[in-house]
């Protein structure tokens, strides 16, 4: 069972295993049809496609951020329809250093499904290693997907009200996964307000990745996160980003590092900044 990362060679050995399901999650925020186009051109053989906006997010209300969490039962039904059952080994990938694929990794864990791993290096490394491609859209039989108990470390959901009430808590360690410039309030072109949540520390999701696209070694990640946490317990860590997507990669990195129990503030900056009564740094 693979719960965090999987390499290309191992995945290639299981491409025809009916107990495995590969999910292509390529997406661009500025071009939301991009993923479907590139998937139609070529993808990992047997991979299905899921869309960040339609499949992994709920409807926006104007006050709940750019990628609200989907209804969990609807997501479970969608996964079952796509051929993902409770015993399926899921492998997720994108071409954005895990920025999108991490969201499904986390959502599956939230549903109690631990058999999910990110393809280390993503689609770019799969291409660079000369591994097989296909343009065929697979037809997988539907599988019953029953929601399990929430992974204990993720059971405590963090929303804006909870976070507002804990901003001054010495136990809170809030980590923002956006780029350093947006964290500093510079070059903000996505959200209407620039800045960050007071007290947050910056750890861009890209800082988990080496030059070849693979994750840094577990020992390196552990050292870097422990330094950032400065004595905080991993269970007191809350991660966020712009809309609750790229921050999931920091959660994955912490799991790789053996630092368990961090939580996601799914609404993230795009939800936080829509209410002018909430403080901004």
Can you walk through the features of this model?
By secondary structure, the chain is of the alpha/beta class. The chain folds into 2 domains: 5-150, Oxidized Rhodanese, domain 1 (3-Layer(aba) Sandwich), CATH 3.40.250; 153-272, Rhodanese-like domain (Oxidized Rhodanese, domain 1). The protein has 10 helices and 9 strands. The strands form 2 sheets. A 5-stranded parallel β-sheet has the order 1-5-4-2-3, sandwiched between helices. Strands 7-6-8-9 form a 4-stranded parallel β-sheet, covered by helices on one side. Helix 9 links the parallel strand 8 (237-240) and strand 9. Helix 4 (101-110) crosses helix 9. The longest helix has 12 residues, at 218-229.
Report the span from N to C terminus: 42 Å
CATH structural fold name of the largest domain: Oxidized Rhodanese, domain 1
Largest sheet: 5 strands, parallel
Q: Which radius of gyration do the C-alpha atoms yield?
A: 18 Å
Order of helices and strands: EHEHEHEHEHHEHEHEHEH
Query: What is the residue-averaged pLDDT?
Result: 95
Briefly, what CATH class of the largest domain? Alpha Beta
- Output the CATH homologous superfamily of the largest domain: Rhodanese-like domain
Tally of domains: 2
Please tag this protein with its features.
281 residues, alpha/beta, Oxidized Rhodanese, domain 1, 5-stranded parallel β-sheet, 4-stranded parallel β-sheet, 10 helices, 9 strands
């Amino acid at each position: 069972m693979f719960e965090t990362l999987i390499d290309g060679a191992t995945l290639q050995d299981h491409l025809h295993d009916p107990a495995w399901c590969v999910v292509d999650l390529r997406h661009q925020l500025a071009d939301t049809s991009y993923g479907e186009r590139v998937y139609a051109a070529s993808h990992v053989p047997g991979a299905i496609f899921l869309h960040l906006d339609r499949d992994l997010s709920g409807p926006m209300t104007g006050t709940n951020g750019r990628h609200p969490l989907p209804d969990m039962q609807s997501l479970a039904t969608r996964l079952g329809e796509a051929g993902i059952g409770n015993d399926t080994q899921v492998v997720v990938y994108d071409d954005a250093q895990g920025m999108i694929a991490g969201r499904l990794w986390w959502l599956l864990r939230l549903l109690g499904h631990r058999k999910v791993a990110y393809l280390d290096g993503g689609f770019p490394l799969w291409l660079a290693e000369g591994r097989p491609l296909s343009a065929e859209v697979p037809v997988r039989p539907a599988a019953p997907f029953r929601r399990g108990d929430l992974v204990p470390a993720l059971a405590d959901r963090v929303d804006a009200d909870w976070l507002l009430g804990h901003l001054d808590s010495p136990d809170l360690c809030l980590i923002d996964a956006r780029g350093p410039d947006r964290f500093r309030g510079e070059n903000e072109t996505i959200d209407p307000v620039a800045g960050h949540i007071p007290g947050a520390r910056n750890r861009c999701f890209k800082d988990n990745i080496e030059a070849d696209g693979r994750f840094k070694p577990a020992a390196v990640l552990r050292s870097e996160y422990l330094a950032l946490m400065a004595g905080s317990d991993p269970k007191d860590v809350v991660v966020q980003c712009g809309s609750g997507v790229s921050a999931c990669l920091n959660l994955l990195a912490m799991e790789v590092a053996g630092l368990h129990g961090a939580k996601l503030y799914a609404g993230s900056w795009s939800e936080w900044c829509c209410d002018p009564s909430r403080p901004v740094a």
